[in-house]
Design brief:
The chain is an alpha+beta fold. The chain has two domains: about 300 residues, Rossmann fold (3-Layer(aba) Sandwich), CATH 3.40.50; about 110 residues, no CATH class. It has 13 helices and 20 strands. Strands 2-1-6-7-8-9-10 form a seven-stranded antiparallel sheet. A hairpin with an 8-residue loop joins strand 1 and strand 2.
Length: about 450
């Protein structure tokens, strides 16, 4: 679960900005939106982020996605290398900071990383005391200007002889100045690094990010192997009244799928499958259809999603994913997201949640999640859809705004900062510019665009 996120000198974030899911204590509405952690520490299950085009709200999710890639794949993404705040002093302001506080398996953590010209200058992981007791260091890593790295770990680790041998080997052979060590330490079989494994699993598994270009992942496999999920997915999609009758998995043996003309490609996929930690490989054709390669009962299968509609005479007709509308594909992507957020302690970040979806439909989806008192996960999203600004669905501290200041830097602030009454029409206030974070519209007449007409 996410507690807070801090970003500095990244994309449109100039000075340090913080996004948090900690509830405002003065607010008493929608109390079931608060999850109680240890020592009566609470976090919120929903957050929406509004802002004009170019205000930087998507940059919050983009920043998190890039650092997730950096940590999980152990490489600096290309976009991260060119991501400094460009309205600052680029020659002087080299350091970029990313810090996050989160909960994994009931344990709160704090993780921070500082990049300096794409060198990881500092990296640290602590057991968080949530501001009520001291944080406990799990590791600290520093890299100097000569690109020499030092690591400090827990007292128990440092006093253990075998662990010291492990540390020496890691520093000599594996630690690189451009690569985080969180994953490296999490993969070691050492009893003093158990909490590091937990922390890494938050980035690797708990955190899920859906961008506007995302496609449904492993949906065919889940539908084929999980009857409860198949029923849930069909119930959801059929309730939207978009013509879908059922969801099915088309299943072929790998030899049949690739044929005799693609033996080399097939061999590469089999090799990748054998090395996959999840025993699954995802493929996409040039039309955007996903196929999942899995090994079951000693045989390798390729599964693809089939979407069944009925024509006017009631006859079933099968469609591939690329034949569906953008809105249908987007909804299919949301099916596992909402399912997981309801039943598991997952954290979903969704950029432009309303994209290609009717406003009434997305509001009804969020209403169901908002009013459900038994949810376990978090849903955090960006949107332009003012129809969602409803205090029956969101607490004031769950509504955030992104707006650029005079220096072109993104500022983040919550509706709860305005101390509005719980009965006020916040949608009307937002559209009237009461909270900022809306586009400044010029007078179209003054643009004189007819002067550019040509014969």
């Amino acid at each position: 679960m996410l507690i807070r996120l801090v970003i500095n000198n990244l994309f449109s974030f100039g000075n340090q900005k913080e996004f948090t899911t900690i509830p405002n204590k003065r607010l008493k509405t929608l109390n079931h939106h608060k999850y109680n952690l240890s020592d009566d520490f609470e976090i919120l299950k929903l957050s929406s982020i509004y802002g004009a085009n170019g205000a930087g709200k998507s940059n919050l999710i983009k920043s998190l996605e890039l650092f997730q890639t950096l940590i999980v794949k152990e490489e600096i993404p290309y976009y991260l290398k060119k991501s400094k705040f460009k309205f600052g002093n680029i020659e002087k302001d080299n350091k970029q900071t990313f810090a996050i506080e989160f909960v994994q398996d009931k344990q709160p953590f704090y993780y921070g990383i500082v990049l300096n010209n794409n060198i990881i200058e500092e990296e640290e992981l602590y057991l968080s005391g949530l501001g009520k007791k001291d944080d406990v260091m799990l590791f600290e890593r520093k890299t100097n200007s000569d690109e020499t790295t030092t690591i400090n770990l827990t007292k128990s680790f440092e006093e253990d002889t075998k662990s010291q041998v492990l540390k020496s080997v890691l520093l000599e052979e594996f630690v690189k100045p451009t690569v985080p060590i969180l994953k490296l330490l999490s993969k070691r079989d050492n009893k003093f690094l158990i909490d590091v494994k937990k922390a890494f699993s938050w980035f690797d598994d708990t955190l899920q990010i859906i961008t506007p270009d995302s496609k449904p992942r492993a949906l065919a496999h889940r539908i084929d192997t999980n009857k409860n999920f198949k029923k849930y997915a069909e119930d959801i999609m059929c309730s939207f009244n978009i013509g879908i009758n059922s969801l099915n998995a088309e299943k072929k043996g790998i030899d049949e799928f690739f044929g005799k003309d693609n033996e080399s490609e097939k061999d590469e996929i089999i090799k990748e499958l054998e090395n996959s930690p999840k025993s699954m490989v995802s493929l996409r054709n040039n039309l955007g259809d996903e196929f999942v390669v899995v090994k079951e009962n000693g045989k390798i299968w390729v599964k693809g999603l089939e979407i069944e509609h009925k024509n006017a005479s009631g006859k079933s007709v099968k469609f591939q994913l690329n034949e569906e509308s953008d809105g249908t594909i987007r909804l299919l992507d949301f099916v596992p997201a909402f399912r997981s957020a309801i039943s598991k302690e997952k954290v979903y970040f969704i950029d432009e949640i309303e994209r290609s979806i009717h406003p009434l439909l997305i509001k009804e989806l969020l209403r169901k999640f908002s009013l459900d008192e038994s949810t376990k996960g978090q849903l955090i999203f960006t949107t332009h859809e003012s129809n969602l600004l409803d205090q029956e669905l969101f607490r004031q501290d769950e509504i955030w705004f992104a707006e650029k200041d005079l220096n072109g830097a993104t500022d983040l602030y919550s509706l709860s900062d305005f101390k509005e009454h719980k009965t006020i029409d916040i949608q009307k206030g937002y559209l009237n510019g009461r909270y900022g974070s809306i586009p400044f519209l010029g007078n179209l007449k003054d643009l004189k665009w007819h002067e550019y007409d040509s014969n």
